[in-house]
Amino acid sequence: MGRVICISLKRIIFLLVLVIVLVAGVFWGVQRIDAHKLWASMLRESQRLRDHLERAAYLLPARFQSNLDSTAQNRLYQELHYAESSLLELSIMDSAHSVQLGKIDNLIVTISDPGIDLSRLNSTEQTRMMNMMCDIGQKVAQAYWSILNYTSVDGVNGPPFWYFGPAPPNETILEEAAQSAFNLTEEIKQI
Fold it and tell me: How far is 100 from 114, CA to CA, in rounded Å?
């Protein structure tokens, strides 16, 4: 038991560096996994928002008629509510873009407002409004799905683990959607 154990300074430094690299690697891996989960959630929620906005646009003629079909209107309000819920989830996940997403939320709230009489719109204006709603939903989905343009051929598997490119959303496309929503909201308020 009286033996002296000698460990060289080089070995201690090597072991410390190895431990630091392993801990940093695990930390980096966990961060990458969390980022990919967040991106996948944003992709899904933007898809849901698009689907609900498209369904709401399809049901929008119920708001254009002066003799209201209560079943169609109820379905419209449900789709608008679902779209708003998806938008809220997206805003929680992507708080950095809450201003742009808030403009889209204002559009949904404005369309849902029973005090606004959309029956004054002519058929061309009605069609334009429906198309703009679909376009806004499509642009939001495109903004969050743009990451797939950089990362996968099939668009199914998502970005590889080592992907370090731009994170969603595509700022330009999301701003276009927000500006379209703002413009449409202002047009509706002037009716």
Answer: 24
